[in-house]
Amino acid sequence: MRVISCIATEHNLWLVLLAALMCVTGCWVTIGLFDRARKTAGVQMRGWLFLTAVAAGSSIWCTHFIAMLAYEPGAPITFDPVLTMVSLVIAIAGTGAGFTLASDKRLVPEWGGCVVGLAISAMHYTGMMAYHVAGIVEWDGSYVAASLVISAAFSAVAVGHAVRRPYRWSHYLAIGLLVLAIVGLHFTAMAAVAVTPLSFISTGTNPDILVAMAVAVAVVGLIVAATGFASYLIDERGRLESFERLQHLALNDALTGLPNRVSFNDRLDHEIDRACEGEDTMTAVIVIDLDRFKEINDLRGHAAGDQALKIVARRLSKLIGEGEFVARLGGDEFAAIKRFKDQKDLLGLVSRLEKSLFEPLRLDDFEIAAGASIGVAVYPRDGADRERLVSNADLAMYRAKNDVTRAVCFYESAMDETARARRALATDLRQAIDRGELSLHYQVQTSVPTGATCGYEALLRWTHPVHGMIPPAEFIPIAEENGSIMAIGEWVLRTACRQAASWDNGHKIAVNLSPVQFAHADLAKLVHQILVETGLSPKRLELELTESTIVADKVRTLHVLRQIKALGVTIAIDDFGTGYSSLDTLRSFPFDKIKLDRSFMADVERSPQAKAIIRAVLTLGRSLDIPVLAEGVETHVQLTILQVEGCNEAQGYFLGRPKPIDQITGDADVRNDQLVAEEPARMRLSRQA
Torsions phi, psi of 447, nearest 5? Predict the structure, then answer.
């Protein structure tokens, strides 16, 4: 009651309200700045703690000064300017120390709050020393002690709530408790004061000037608080913009600006949940893979590839409408989501996608129609969850990619059976070497001018215990996908070298290399090791690789080839003429042999163009001093054409089908006898041609 009586009867209530406004505003800004300081570290944290100390100290000091001006002792008053300034310094430094201690995670935050309370008390009583009244001042020790306890206790609890946040509204509770600490200290301390005026002293500060001072101090205090609040807002805006930027980067593709896989998954989950609620609503997943994107990268470089992706992304963005969503999943793979009720709506989107994706892409002075393979799966018909739905759309897309007659494929249950069968083959293939299911067949390579055997090409065969003989075109891609091609390739090379070393005719052995072997193995070291183990002369080993192997990583591949060639092993370029950089490939590396692709021999009898290409390649080989071997010779007429055009070597069914090792030696002896007998006739035929 003494405190309440002191406020009601000994103070200017308007100035008390002004002090209260100053106190609440300052505490609100202080707790906000302190909260920001705790979320930072290092120099940033120290900067925010400095702003917290300035806001807290100035608002506490302004509250105290205004409340002191509101006090009406009934006698003239004056202020000591030095002590008044000292009290401001104490307020800023003391609260700064307290909040710094409270932000240290190694300490209990309430200890820092106690320091803040003591700083408030020290500021108040220093300010009271600067307050000179024309009268006798008496103090009540019990009220002084109570003021100190109130200030320390409420400040400790306030800072504890600001740091610990035990409740959802702890932030506002901390503000209120800090206000109570400041106000409770001041008015309890003022209740401890009793002033007996001295009638013979009449000089003092004009009361009107005191009111003006109170207003001025309040304005300055509010400006300081507003400055702190403005700093908070600026930082908050910066943090918000940074968060939005990071969120955009996390949910969108950096290159194209389209939503990324994370956004796609979230949207698809949302659409599936929505489709569950509406019985007549379905959701389609459309997976898109560009067909000729690798060609763009290889021909024009990655910058052109990036430009192509941006063009495709812009086209996809423009064609989507309500209930439709498009994203880039990675690489040259895109995906779309369609919410629909009528199948015609889905077909409409697929048609728009197909039309847009098959429009030519203009890249500077280069134009290409990339094309795409599109797979579609529909919820809930083709999958009950996101993973199954996307997986089935992928299966449909791969079916479209393998079918040259169509670009769009809808998922069918039979695709699952094909995928399961493929996975089963992949599992069996990993064990094929240990089970002895792999074998090598050899196809003879013949000299076209003389008909003599030049060597043999080793061809891999897999005899499955259940499915029987599986074509290499079926299991080699599986081996390259699951990584088992590494072990299989090593087995083929070692077996071929060991078997060839046992021959006494000195013929060469040709072994095909997979692109995966160049990408993931120390191939030169492996070849050298196998030659040493098997005892095969390096000059009898010929390694064959396709142009696509070189294009995939030209620098590394050519480096490996030079290492292998240094061993004495010969290198042949396989399927020549089907790539898009054949001349550049020949210029980059001195190959020992060119193998002309079998597709040219298939058309040579009826196509003048194929015959002209064969003649051109043979001329190129002669000018570069590189022998040419023609693959796929299946008729006597084809062989005759090669003889006339001056081809060096040939292989094909007409000259010999692939056979196991135990049939090679005997067939070679018989063939050599036939060649001796047929030599005059072949020479006459050559002259007639």
Answer: -75, 125
